[in-house]
Each structure stands twice: as C-alpha cells, then as structure tokens.
Design goal:
Its main location: mitochondrion. This protein is an all-alpha fold and about 575 residues long. Among the domains are: about 130 residues, Tetratricopeptide repeat domain (Serine Threonine Protein Phosphatase 5, Tetratricopeptide repeat); about 140 residues, Serine Threonine Protein Phosphatase 5, Tetratricopeptide repeat (Alpha Horseshoe), CATH 1.25.40. It has 30 helices and no strands. Bound molecules: 2-acetamido-2-deoxy-beta-D-glucopyranose (4 copies). The site of one 2-acetamido-2-deoxy-beta-D-glucopyranose (NAG) has 2 residues, from helix 15.
Length: about 575
C-alpha cells in the first residue's frame, strides 16, 4: 500500500503501528516517559523552570568566630545575594572566594559553590564555563541533579547532543522519570541526535530489498497497476530461448528472483530506442523496485521520466503518480505528495487506487473526514477491493470514535464483522478488525482474529508481532509476548516491525544491551531517513541509559509494560 514503506520493514502504515504500540513505537522513548506521567494523572510541573535559575541557598547568621567553612558559606551567601540582584559578575567573584577558602574535604559545599557559579555563568551564556563548573561540582557529588541538568542545558546550547543526552538521562533516572523539564528535554535531544545519526547512516546505506512477501504485498496493494497486471498475466508470451529486458524481468518476477529485476529493466530501457515495446513498463517496474530497496533518488528519476513522457498509457501515469506521492509522503514532502495525488485524481478520476492510497495518507495526517471521503470514493469505484473496503471501515470507525457517535460506532463495528465474512481470505481484514477489538479491550476476540489472519497468511510475521502486543495488553505476559516476537523474526528475518517492537519491550525489561542490538537490526532494514531517525532515537535512548546506569551505579529503570 502507498504508505506501507513508511514504517520500515513493517508493511503496516504508521497509523497502524501507532495504534498498536501506543505512543511508544511511534514517537520514541522520550514521549513515552511523558505518557507514563500523564497516565498517572500528573500535570506538567513547571517548578523545574524556576529551578533552572535557582541557586543553592542556605542562609545562616554570621557567627562570631568563623571557621574556613563558615567563611566560605558567607561568601556564597553574598554571591547568592548578588545573583538575585542580577549582578552575575559580582556573584561570580564571591563564589570564587567561597571556593578558594573552602576546606577540601567539604565535598557537598564545594559542589554547591561550583554549581552556583555555573548558574551565574549560565546567565551570562558562558557555556564552556558552565560545563567546567558543573563538571567540578559533579566530581564532588556525582548525583547532583541540579548540576547535571544545568550541564545538560549548556550542552544543548552548544548542540553537543550526545553529552547532553547522557546528563539529561541521568536526571531522568535519578528523579525516577518525574522531572518534567528533563523529560521534555530528553525527547527533544533524542530527536536531534536521531536526525544526525540517520543523516550519517543514510549516506553509507546500501540498497536492500525487503522480504519477498513484502514485495508481493506491495504490488497487490494496487488494484489497477497496469504493469503488475502485465507481469502476472499469462497472455504476454515470455518468449522462447533467451529472453531479455522486460520479459526477462517478468520471468524473474514469476520465479521470485527479485534481485534480477532492476538490471533486466535497465537492459530494456538502455537497448530500447526503436524496437522496445515495454520501455514505460520497464521504467515503472525499475522505479518500484528502487523504491522498495530504498534507492529513492533513482526511483524519483524514473518516475519523472514516466510522468513527463508524451507517449505513455494514462493508467501507467496515474499509477506512477500514486507511487511517487507515497514516496514523497515517506520523505516528509507532504506538499509534493498531495500535488501528485491531485494530478492523479485529475488524470484518472475513475481509478480507485488514487483515492484508496490518498485516504491512507489523509489518515496518517489525522484528516479523518477527508480520508473517509477518499475511501468512500475508492469503494464506490471498486466495491470488491477488500483492502479498500476494510480501510473504509477503519476510517469510519475512527471518525465515529472521534465524534463520539455511538450509533455509528456500533454500525461500523458490525460492518467490520460483515467484511470478515465477505472477504474471508484477506488477512488484512482480520488484522485491522483485530486492532479495533484490541482497542475496545475485547482481547479474546481479537486474538481469534489474529489467529485467523495467520491461517490465511502463515508467513506473515507482522501478525505475530500484533499477537505479541496483544499478550502484553491483555495479560501483561511479557514472556509470551517476547516468544511471539522472536517467532516473528524467525519467520521473516527482515521484519523491521518485529525488531523494533521487541527492542522496545527489552528496554522495558531492562535488557538494554539486547535492545540496542535489536534496534541496530531494525536500522539496517529501515528505508527512509524518517524511519531511521525514529529508530536511532530509540537506540540512543537505550545506549544512554546503559552508560548512565553503569556510571552512577543505579539499576536500569524497570518500567511497567503498558504498551
Ligand atoms: C511541583 O513540584 C514542586 C517540587 O518538586 C512542588 O513543591 C509543587 O507543589 C509542585 N506543584 C504542583 C502544581 O504540583
Ligand atoms: C544505461 O544508460 C544509462 C544512461 O544512458 C547509463 O548511465 C548506464 O550506465 C547504462 N547502463 C547499462 C547497464 O548499460
Ligand atoms: C459506518 O456507519 C455510518 C453511519 O451508520 C455509515 O454511513 C457508514 O457507511 C458505515 N461505514 C461502513 C464502512 O460501513
Ligand atoms: C501482513 O499482514 C498485514 C495485515 O493483514 C498486511 O498489511 C501486510 O501487508 C502483510 N505482510 C506481508 C508481508 O504480507
């Protein structure tokens, strides 16, 4: 389906994943922490913002005979006074004196003085001094949360994301994920770091085809792909003896030798000129395989050749526009995506694929009403296309939920049931309905639906992952969930969804090393930078927790499995 590749090795569009894993899988660990908080009914507590300009203060009366420590404290108090007046340079010189006279063994006091001086430097935006002083404070008091958070902010100011993440992770762990500002910061930094790592990784990534099943499913998500129809039709003779070009690609497709397809298409395209019958077909097929393997730039070039050609069958053009639109969606070029869909709708107002695929994009964009209109049109044009029918059910169901229309909700749930009877050989129908029932906490029924989907598609690993998630939600049974997800990987070693989801579960169990390895595998399978960014955020969060827990000697945070 159009948006399928946007969720990596998983053929599920993002909205389905988000649905299944809640905020965790879809948005990243940082948000998940947040979600935990909101779940517990805690409102954002902005006290931390005030903390960030606060300094440690413990006023005392000046005694008659001062010990060095008392003198140091007096200097500190004077410094605090200046700080509160906004006289930061003066404050710094008092803190200097405090540090100078403070006896060496007074670790906690020294830490405070350094921390306070860092606060003054922070006001002056002298980031490297902030970092130095916080580091000194932390040498005296390793778990000094204020110094950690202040240093994190300084690292953020100079865009040193990696160090920033470690500090803010430490704050989160020390505060047991209750420090709202640190949570927000962790989320922000994870995104930056994820983006940076993804941009680096994408440069060296080699194109790689997804699993054979994934490829086949991709093509069947179009009801009117003229090139696919040619590929599977037995009318065009494959030819006798040596075949070459598009016909060779056709043979490769039939025998599932998918890695031969791009070269065969290139042969057709290059040799062509006068005698080629299949140049547009070859361009379309090559572009699809380039898209599937993550060769986006080359895919876009082939798409362009087709769209700009004057002698091209209109159905191929429309199909190409849809494919390019979905690629733009994956690459976060929303405007170009919608433009292509608009062009496709203009060229092929009667082609249901246009509306079916645009409906999915609209759902992803949370434009439920527009999605419903598109699905309606798609089903009107092609009432027997199961995937479109069931996605319409789903969009209608979502809409009924949002608008709290109970009558419609009941109607649509029974429509779903009917769809499972009508399209009893389409796994997607069962999986989507299963997700709806999971959401409605009808777990036993949902599991039956997943089992039925597995009967129809025993090779489909993503269904096993959904079953695993169901075990977690239903029974809190981590062991069984993990088993099912491992089975998914055994079944399809290219199932990105399985690696990612299992990784998230392992983070929750505190198996950080295992989780990092799983995220790495998912990254190797991701096809777009957006997916990679998300996966790197997960991985970076796990690595940072690993580093911090080791360094500070606190156990990894064992969070309740509530995905
Ligand atoms: C916010 O947290 C601070 C200390 O952490 C506490 O004193 C304050 O009452 C909290 N405010 C709210 C609105 O919960
Ligand atoms: C096909 O043609 C393109 C452009 O003319 C060229 O860059 C490419 O190397 C050729 N490929 C083969 C396999 O001949
Ligand atoms: C959902 O319910 C509404 C209102 O009852 C109905 O108009 C719509 O066709 C239903 N959707 C599906 C997919 O049957
Ligand atoms: C697995 O099943 C889901 C749900 O039916 C479907 O969306 C996906 O395309 C299938 N994957 C493969 C590889 O067939």
């Amino acid at each position: 389906m159009a948006t399928s590749s946007s969720s990596g090795g998983s053929p599920f569009p993002k909205w389905q994943i988000a649905l299944a894993v809640g905020a965790t899988g879809a948005i990243g660990l940082g948000y998940w922490y947040l979600r935990q908080q909101y779940k517990e009914g805690k409102k954002a507590n902005l006290t931390g913002i005030k903390n960030s300009i606060s300094i440690d203060d413990a006023s005392q009366d000046t005694p008659i005979t001062e010990t060095p420590l008392q003198l140091a404290q007096r200097f500190k108090n004077e410094g605090n006074l200046q700080f509160k007046k906004g006289k930061y340079d003066e404050a710094i010189s008092f803190y200097n004196k405090a540090i100078e006279v403070c006896p060496e063994g007074q670790k906690l006091d020294l830490a405070t003085f350094y921390q306070n001086r860092a606060a003054a430097y922070e006001q002056l935006k002298k980031w490297s001094s902030v970092i130095t002083d916080c580091t000194k404070a932390l040498e005296q008091n390793q778990k000094y949360e204020k110094a950690l958070f202040r240093r994190a902010k300084a690292y953020e100011a100079i865009k040193d994301w990696e160090n920033c993440l470690d500090d803010v992770t430490a704050v989160c762990l020390i505060q047991n994920f209750q420090h709202q500002n640190a949570l927000v910061m962790a989320d922000r930094v994870l995104k930056e770091l994820g983006k940076q790592h993804a941009a680096e990784a994408i440069k060296v990534r080699k194109p790689r085809l997804p699993s054979n099943q994934f490829i086949k499913t991709y093509f069947t998500s179009f009801s009117e792909d003229p090139v696919y129809k040619k590929l599977i039709s037995t009318e065009e003779p494959i030819g006798e003896g040596d075949v070459s070009g598009f016909l060779k690609a056709k043979l490769a497709f039939a025998t599932e030798n998918f890695e031969e397809i791009i070269p065969a298409c290139t042969e057709e395209i290059n040799s062509s000129e006068s005698e080629s019958h299949f140049i547009m077909e070859a361009l379309s097929l090559r572009a699809s395989f380039l898209l599937l393997s993550g060769g986006h730039k080359d895919a876009l070039e082939d798409f362009k050749s087709i769209i700009e050609a004057t002698n091209c069958d209109v159905k191929i053009k429309v199909n190409t526009l849809i494919k390019r639109a979905s690629l733009h969606m994956q690459l976060d070029n929303i405007e170009e995506c919608l433009e292509d869909f608009a062009k496709a709708a203009e060229l092929g107002p009667d082609i249901s694929d246009v509306f079916h695929h645009r409906g999915q994009v609209k759902l992803l964009m949370d434009k439920t009403e527009e999605a419903r209109q598109d699905f309606s049109r798609a089903v009107e044009l092609n009432p027997d296309f199961a995937i479109a029918v069931v996605q319409k059910c789903y969009a209608d169901y979502r809409y009924a939920m949002i608008s709290q229309n109970v009558a419609m909700l009941m109607q649509n749930i029974s429509d779903f049931k009917k769809a499972t009877e009508r399209f009893s050989s389409c796994a997607e129908v069962f999986v989507l309905y299963g997700q709806v029932l999971t959401e409605r906490q009808e777990f036993a029924e949902a599991d039956k639906l997943y089992l039925k989907a597995l009967e129809i598609e025993p090779y489909n690993a993503t269904v096993l992952v959904h079953r695993g998630l169901l075990q977690l939600q239903w029974k809190g049974n981590i062991e069984q969930a993990v088993e099912l997800m491992k089975d998914a990987i055994k079944l399809d070693e290219k199932c990105e969804f399985a690696y990612e989801t299992l990784g998230t579960v392992e983070v929750q169990r505190g198996n950080l090393v295992v989780a990092v390895d799983l995220f790495d595998k998912a990254i190797g399978l991701a096809r777009t930078e957006t997916e990679m960014t998300h996966l790197f955020s997960l991985k970076d969060a796990a690595i940072s927790q690993l580093k911090v827990t080791t360094k500070l000697g606190i156990g990894p945070q064992l969070l309740k499995p509530n995905i």
